Amino acid sequence: MLVSAKEMLQKAKAGKYAVGQFNINNLEWTKAILLTAQELKSPVILGVSEGAGKYMTGYKTVVGMVNGMMEELNITVPVALHLDHGSYEGCMKCIEAGFSSIMFDGSHFPIDENVEKTTELVKICAEKGMSLEAEVGSIGGEEDGVIGKGECADPQECKKIADLGVTMLAAGIGNIHGKYPANWEGLSFETLQAVSELTGDMPLVLHGGTGIPEDQIKKAISLGVAKINVNTECQLSFAAATRKYIEEGKDLQGKGFDPRKLLAPGTEAIKATVKEKMELFGSIGKAE
Ligand SMILES: [Zn+2]
């Protein structure tokens, strides 16, 4: 059964490790992530962007697939199904469809409007036992066609949103979605420290986990980051393994064109990436 992300993230914050949010795109992605989490006894968050939700034909399909898969694969570790960068309307649809967690990305609204909409969602999520992630300070890079410029959040605004009663808070600390440019200046630990001090026990979320050096990830966890989003890295490893299979001509040998064979190396590659991240984040064995 799907769970809210609240308990797993509070445990992670207290235990100084982070739970990975791995975004899903289809059945292979979901299966690879769930099986790896179960094998490694790690809690996990399945992220679904609005674009991916649409691709999978809608949120109800996603909920049906994930619930079915958890039952048939005997997944017993805590799993949250989470809307990534949701609009207000997207959040309402996911609440109705049976997600266990949502992110409302109000970072592009003026702070007062972000506060107003977040307050409404805090109330609904509390009634439904769901977790809610809020965002302050837009996160750079491209997410479903929206381009932002790695900003640093205002720590006082973070406190204002955290105090509304959200479950976890994403604050821009110079992080970017997608691949990092060569001239990237790194994470702003000064901002992270200030946000962490003002928000106390609030689990903080680091978006754009792909390409941040390992030492910076570890330092961010030590300063209060308890959830790290990984998306691009699974896409890159899936694509590389699929490319290799085809370039080696394996789809032309025997029944190598069978989609179950053709997609297998990519699926295994996602598993390896998820395992690597769970090791780095320190979440292995934490679901026991
Ligand atoms: Zn993000």
From TrEMBL:
Positions of dihydroxyacetone phosphate binding = 178, 208-210, 229-232
Binding locations of Zn(2+) 1: 85, 177, 207
Which is an annotated GO molecular function term of this record?
A: zinc ion binding
Keyword Lyase assigned to the entry: answer is yes
Where are the catalytic residues? 84
- What CDD domains does the database record attribute to this sequence? TBP_aldolase_IIB
The cofactors named for this UniProt entry are: Zn(2+)
Record-annotated residues binding Zn(2+) 2?
A: 105, 135
Q: What class of enzyme is it?
A: lyase
* Enzyme Commission number(s) from the entry: 4.1.2.13
Q: Which InterPro entries match?
A: Aldolase_TIM (IPR013785), Class_II_FBP_aldolase (IPR050246), FBA_II (IPR000771), Fruc_bis_ald_class-2 (IPR011289)
Ordered alphabetically, the record's keywords are: Lyase, Metal-binding, Zinc
Q: Which domain of life is it from?
A: Bacteria
What is written in the cofactor note of this entry?
Binds 2 Zn(2+) ions per subunit. One is catalytic and the other provides a structural contribution.
One of its GO biological process terms is: glycolytic process
The name this protein goes by in its record: Class II fructose-1,6-bisphosphate aldolase
Whichever gene encodes this chain, its name is fba
